UniProtKB/TrEMBL annotation:
This is Fe2OG dioxygenase domain-containing protein. InterPro entries: Oxoglu/Fe-dep_dioxygenase_dom, Pro_4_hyd_alph, Pro_4_hyd_alph_FE2OG_OXY. The keyword Kinase does not apply. GO terms for molecular function: dioxygenase activity; iron ion binding; L-ascorbic acid binding; oxidoreductase activity, acting on paired donors, with incorporation or reduction of molecular oxygen. Residues 81-178 form the Fe2OG dioxygenase domain.
């Protein structure tokens, strides 16, 4: 009920274009809400894409897909997308991972997150480990690893990325905002 899969949101040519946009921008070590870096919790390189510039087409696809899925499945009060698109690279060489967490937090924007969408940018055969898992009711469930697919879930749902043991996993994350849950 709190997660939904969007098959083939992006085609392989589009996933490669998104990765190229990420690599052309400034990549840095990912942190937690507030910029704190805790390598035992999160180890990934991230970049932020200009969703009104070169990556505008990416945001257009996400907004359209989220609007349909939210109307049909979640029915949350979504008002906007206040944060830029985040691309993460989880590398085997530094045991890339992100431990269990939710996307609602103490930051001003994190309080308003309603839905999270994570798109799979890498070919699943190019890496091992690196599974996006969500947990509702204590039962972890691995997301679809098909290149271009996306998982949409309520931002309060616990999720993680398991350690990458071979290769590199790229993903795209976007948050949908609205009035705080009550």
């Amino acid at each position: 009920m709190f997660t939904h899969t969007l098959s083939k949101l992006f085609n392989p040519e589009q996933t490669r274009a998104i990765i190229a946009l990420s690599e052309a921008s400034r990549q840095k070590q990912g942190g937690l809400v507030g910029g704190v870096r805790e390598h035992n919790i999160r180890r990934a390189d991230i970049s932020w894409l200009d969703d009104r510039g070169d990556a505008g087409w990416v945001m257009d696809k996400i907004v359209d897909a989220v609007a349909i899925a939210n109307r049909e499945r979640f029915q949350f009060d979504i008002t906007d997308f206040k944060e830029r698109l985040q691309v993460a690279a989880y590398h085997q060489t530094d045991e890339g991972h992100y431990d269990w967490h939710s996307d609602i937090g103490d930051g001003p924007l994190a309080r308003q997150r309603k839905l999270t969408i994570v798109a799979q940018l890498s070919d699943a055969a190019s890496y091992d480990g690196g599974d996006l898992e969500t947990s509702v009711g204590g039962s972890p469930r691995a997301a679809d690893r098909e290149e271009g697919s996306a998982t949409l879930f309520a931002s309060f749902v616990a999720h993680r990325v398991t350690p990458v043991t071979r290769g590199t996993r790229h993903s795209l994350t976007c948050w949908c905002h609205g009035p705080q849950f009550r």
